């Protein structure tokens, strides 16, 4: 519809200033306005920049929002979405930025066409189509930046949450923090076993002070880790069992009787020292 | 036909598995080892699987079987040198080798066997 696009082009070119004023007014009076997160001047700047970019892209005559002539608009929108995602806006609030342009735009279109109902309908349709596409793009960019954030945090958490530290000669400690799911158990198990090989540790203390809840699945994961460490010739001590967790374990009928358990890491460390010193040095000496 | 060598070290037998285990080889080892335990009056068996990178449930079971047979013949079995990946696989297969003693390396495994011998002689 070349005629329809032209009206929009003319409109934006002619009355950009009034359009901007109306649009900002609409946004300021909208219920989704987050004056706590964003200053009015910033909003005004963003709106102005968007309008001028929109004008440039509309001038090109193309209505393909994924085409090259719309690239500046897309870049701008993804930048805005990202910054709003980080500021804590909701997706709806972010999309409203673009969609709220409809109201002042349609009002102006109405004035432009007067009695030509068919022309008005066509123009409104093409404009709606355009703005909806841009709105959807905004939401998509918003979600994408949120997802990136979540993934990065997950990765960081995974790295942070599975340290294996050497407490003493032949003694490793594995302070677990956070919930133990299968994926994390795998990571924990691997890093523990490799550390056992690296250090030749004979005892590993698994401290579960930071594990919020222990259900049968978590207990099973713990027992798997203990069994794997045992296959590598290292004994495991589970420490940091809080009273509630002890109760839960018994109520669930989890059998931890094959594993040495201690209430605190200090107790576990004491018994680990006793075991390694009583056994290992003279033993290794005897063979050489 | 390839065979897994069984070395005698004092009262102990040393088995190092350095080729990929397949089922026939495992059965052969079981046969040879029980015969050697009896012939040498061995008190302990040390199985080193540090170069084993792949295990399946059959090999896992084989190792526990060998340990159980050795125990019947009054020889303690220590499996040493299990790789981390192998350990995880065995656990995931549900074979945690109950009743088999394990050690990180041959040194530690030998120490365990010596300890047992010392206990017996006391």
Describe the fold and architecture:
The complex is a heterodimer of chains A (288) and B (122). Helices cover 68% and strands 9% of the residues of chain A. Chain A has 11 helices and 5 strands; from the N terminus they run αααααααββαβαβαβα. Chain A is rod-shaped, with a radius of gyration of 32 Å. The N and C termini of chain A lie far apart (91 Å). Chain B is 48% helix and 18% strand. Chain B has one domain (6-121): STAS domain (Transcription Regulator spoIIAA, 2-Layer Sandwich). By secondary structure, chain B is of the alpha/beta class. The A-B interface holds A 186, 189-190, 193-194, 196-197, 200, 202, 224, 227-234, 280, 283-284, 286-287 and B 79-80, 82-84, 86-88, 90-92, 96-97, 102-105, 107-112, 114-115.
Outline the secondary-structure elements.
The complex is a heterodimer of chains A (288) and B (122).
Chain A: H1 2-14, H2 16-29, H3 40-59, H4 71-87, H5 91-99, H6 102-113, H7 117-160, E1 165-168, E2 171-177, H8 182-199, E3 203-210, H9 216-231, E4 235-239, H10 243-252, E5 260-261, H11 265-287
Parallel strand pairs in A: 2-3, 3-4, 4-5
Antiparallel strand pairs in A: 1-2
Chain B: E1 6-9, E2 12-16, H1 23-40, E3 44-48, H2 57-72, E4 76-80, H3 84-92, E5 101-103, H4 106-121
Helix pairs in contact in B: 1-2
Q: What is the CATH homology-level superfamily of chain B?
A: STAS domain
- In total, the number of strands of chain B is 5
Q: What coarse outline of chain B follows from CA principal-axis ratios? A: globular
CATH fold-level topology of chain B = Transcription Regulator spoIIAA
**CATH hierarchy, class of chain B:** Alpha Beta
State the gist of this model.
The complex is a heterodimer of chains A (288) and B (122). Helices cover 68% and strands 9% of the residues of chain A.
């Amino acid at each position: 519809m070349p005629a329809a696009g032209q009206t929009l082009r003319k409109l934006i070119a002619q009355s950009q200033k009034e359009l901007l004023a109306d649009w900002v007014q609409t946004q300021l009076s909208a219920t989704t306005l987050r004056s706590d997160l964003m200053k009015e001047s910033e909003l005004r700047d963003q709106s102005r920049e968007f309008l001028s970019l929109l004008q440039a892209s509309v001038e090109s005559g193309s209505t393909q929002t994924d085409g090259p002539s719309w690239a500046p608009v897309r870049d701008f929108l993804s930048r805005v979405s990202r910054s709003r995602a980080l500021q804590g806006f909701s997706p709806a609030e972010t999309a409203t930025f673009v969609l709220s342009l409809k109201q002042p735009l349609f009002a102006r279109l109405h004035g432009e066409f007067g009695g030509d109902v068919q022309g008005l309908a066509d123009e409104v349709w093409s404009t709606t189509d355009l703005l909806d596409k841009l709105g959807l793009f905004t939401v998509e960019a918003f979600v994408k930046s949120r997802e990136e954030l979540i993934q990065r945090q997950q990765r960081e958490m995974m790295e942070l949450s599975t340290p294996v530290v050497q407490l003493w000669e032949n003694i490793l400690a594995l302070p677990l923090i956070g919930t133990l799911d299968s994926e994390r158990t795998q990571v924990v198990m691997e890093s523990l076993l490799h550390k056992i090989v690296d250090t030749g540790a004979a005892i590993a203390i698994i401290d579960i002070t930071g594990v919020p809840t222990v259900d049968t699945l978590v207990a099973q994961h713990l027992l798997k880790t203990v069994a794997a460490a045992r296959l590598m010739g290292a004994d495991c001590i589970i420490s940091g069992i809080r009273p509630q967790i002890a109760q839960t374990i018994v109520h669930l009928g989890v059998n931890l009787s094959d594993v040495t358990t201690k209430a605190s890491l200090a107790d576990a460390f004491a018994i680990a020292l006793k075991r390694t010193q009583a056994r290992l040095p003279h033993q290794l000496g005897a063979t050489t | 036909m390839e065979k897994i060598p069984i070395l005698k070290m004092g009262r102990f037998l040393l088995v190092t598995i350095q080729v990929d285990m397949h089922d026939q080889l495992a059965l052969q080892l079981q046969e040879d080892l029980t015969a050697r335990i009896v012939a040498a009056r061995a008190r302990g068996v040390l199985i080193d699987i540090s170069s084993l990178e792949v295990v399946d449930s059959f090999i896992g079971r084989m190792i526990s079987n060998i340990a159980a047979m050795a125990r019947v013949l009054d020889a303690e079995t220590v499996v040493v040198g299990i790789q981390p990946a192998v350990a995880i696989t065995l656990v995931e297969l549900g074979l945690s080798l109950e009743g088999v003693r394990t050690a990180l390396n041959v040194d530690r495994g030998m120490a365990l066997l010596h300890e047992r011998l010392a206990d017996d002689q006391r």
